[in-house]
Design goal:
The chain is an alpha/beta fold. The chain has helices at 31-42, 49-80, 86-101, 111-123, 128-169, 177-222, 224-230, 295-302, 325-334, 345-365, 368-373, 380-388, 431-445, 467-487, 509-522, and strands at 2-12, 15-25, 253-261, 267-275, 309-316, 398-402, 411-416, 448-454, 498-503. It starts with a strand and ends in a 13-residue tail after the last helix.
Length: 535
């Protein structure tokens, strides 16, 4: 850098004026600002502004060019004379990258991102049918293996029952109580051994399918014709492609509404009332025709890597397991086919369990007064016993799992319920209702545009449930969900959503149609207006 004098002269009447200003070259400032400062400081007339700016611009360009040329000549001369230490240059730039590298985001694409982009492009191309046929062939292989497993376990159970009945008939005569205990223990060991054997075989098949699926996707991108020739699915023999339902109360019923919410800023949403088993959104009906793909699965696959995901709320107990009740049925639905995109259900449960343990440890360390403010139990003995018994989640908490192999669901929200949801009357302050609000808020921030909710917060209709109880529970959930949906605007979620309310299959058709008549009285249903021309 150096200083160079800039000279400017002008004539105003009989007066000749001259200006000399030192400038630092190379000049990196703003010329317009410099001209304005010079005119203001030296009281120049306004008519010289244009001429001053023009001469100053030419001077700066020529001096900058000369400075850069001299600097380049010096660098070339230094390189020719071997006066530069390359190691110092490397060290300088290495330290600079290490210093500033942590403030920048890496633009490297992970393998999972590449796989998701490849799948998204293929599922929206003419290869989508071939891709879904491959997935269906994998599902058929897993289902065949599951059927063989169930058959072996059923045969083992029958054989064990016969052996145990034979022993119990001669107990006290030919066999003692110790013989019964030893035989029972042997039966348990044999059953566990057989289950482990089949679990290992199914796991190996699923891992093989995952690797083959990813390899096939890479091949179809480079050689579509050759990859399609490799796809050969064995035809399945079946007498009935669909299950025939004879009971009218078992047929799926559905009513759809378009509602508008909000006073000034109105938002339009779709509301559906459905009578169906909640797990029917997870399980696929047996489609055993050759080259026939379930159309619902096509829609789910196309929106897998998109901002239009589908979620389902499942009311469960406070145990993080899949051994009993509806959780066992849900795990069975997940095992009908291989999870080709995301982690298996057991792996996700393991990750959730670690998070729950961390949250439980943090909650136990909090003061009792703070836990009372957070809504937790203020009784130390109750809290300690709750965690020791393994009940690490309380009513209203929820955890979510992600899936790509379910028929109509991408995200499963497991809402923790309690015994009060079965028969007792609840109000809008119940933790389960607050859990629905938190789930809806999570959907708004994670692109879940379709959410399916059990309207009665139960999954089965028992004999104790009456029609007035159904109406009261449905009205409560309807009104609370309406308030939550109106609150979505304050969460930054103004786009249209689809909310599906599901009632169990055991609900009578008369009760379903009464709930259908109740919904328009709670939500503002958009009505069609017919415009007639005036005569």
């Amino acid at each position: 850098m150096k200083e160079v004098n800039f000279c400017f002269s002008y004539q105003c009447g009989q007066v000749n004026a001259r200006l000399t200003v030192p400038l630092v070259i190379p000049f990196e400032g703003d010329l317009k600002e410099l001209v304005h400062r010079l005119i203001t400081k030296h009281n120049f007339p306004c008519f010289v502004k244009k001429e001053l700016h023009h001469e100053l611009e030419l001077f700066v360009k020529s001096q900058n060019k000369q400075s850069f040329q001299e600097s380049g000549d010096r660098v070339i001369e230094t390189l020719q004379n071997d006066e530069i230490d390359n190691s110092k240059i490397v060290q300088f730039w290495n330290e600079a990258f290490q210093k500033h590298g942590r403030y920048t985001e890496t633009s490297l694409t992970s393998s999972e991102e590449e796989f998701s982009d490849l799948y998204h492009s293929l599922i929206h191309s003419h290869n989508f049918e071939t891709l879904l046929n491959l997935e269906q062939s994998y599902a058929f292989s897993v289902q065949d293996l599951n059927q063989e497993r169930d058959k072996d376990l059923a045969e083992l159970e029958k054989r064990q029952h016969r052996e145990m009945d034979e022993i119990l008939q001669f107990i006290g005569k030919k066999y003692s109580d110790d013989d019964v205990n030893r035989k029972a223990q042997k039966h348990i060991d044999n059953q566990q051994l057989l289950e482990t054997k089949w679990a290992s075989q199914i796991s190996m098949l699923q891992e093989t399918q995952k690797r083959g699926y990813r390899d096939w996707l890479n091949r179809i991108r480079s050689d579509p014709a050759g990859a399609e020739k490799e796809l050969r699915r064995k035809p399945r023999s079946s007498t009935n492609d669909f299950d025939v339902v004879s009971d009218i109360d078992e047929i799926r019923l559905e009513e759809s509404f378009t509602v508008q919410l909000g006073a000034q800023l109105k938002t339009t949403h779709n509301i559906r009332l459905i009578r169906e088993d909640v797990l029917a959104f997870c399980k696929a009906k047996p489609m055993q025709k050759e080259n026939f793909v379930n159309p619902q699965h096509i829609q789910t696959a196309m929106s897998l890597y998109s901002n239009k995901l589908c979620g389902l709320v499942l009311v469960v107990d406070n145990r993080l397991s899949s051994y009993t009740g509806i959780k066992k049925d849900f795990a069975s639905a997940c095992q009908q086919s291989t999870e080709l995109h995301l982690a298996d259900l057991s792996v996700q449960f393991g990750e959730i369990d670690e998070c729950v343990k961390e949250a439980s440890d943090w909650q136990m360390k909090q003061p009792v007064s703070q836990q009372s403010l957070n809504g937790s139990s203020s009784n130390p003995l109750r809290r300690e016993g709750m965690f020791q018994n393994g009940a690490k989640m309380k009513t209203g908490d929820f955890y979510l799992t992600r899936h790509s192999n379910l028929i109509e669901v991408h995200v499963m929200y497991h809402l923790v319920g309690d015994d009060q949801l079965q028969l007792a009357e609840i109000n809008s302050r119940h933790p389960a209702i607050s859990g629905l609000r938190n789930i809806l808020k999570t959907c708004c921030s994670h692109d879940v545009t379709t959410l399916t909710i059990p309207l009665l917060l139960i999954h089965e209709i028992t004999e104790e449930i009456t029609l007035p109880w159904v109406q009261k529970r449905a009205e409560l959930v309807f009104k609370c969900m309406k308030g939550f949906m109106m609150e979505m605007v304050s969460w930054g979620c103004s786009e249209s959503r689809t909310i599906q309310f599901v009632v169990p299959k055991g609900l009578s058709s008369e009760a379903f149609y009464e709930l259908t008549a109740m919904l328009p009285n709670i939500f503002r249903v958009a009505r069609t207006k017919f415009l007639k021309p005036t005569p």
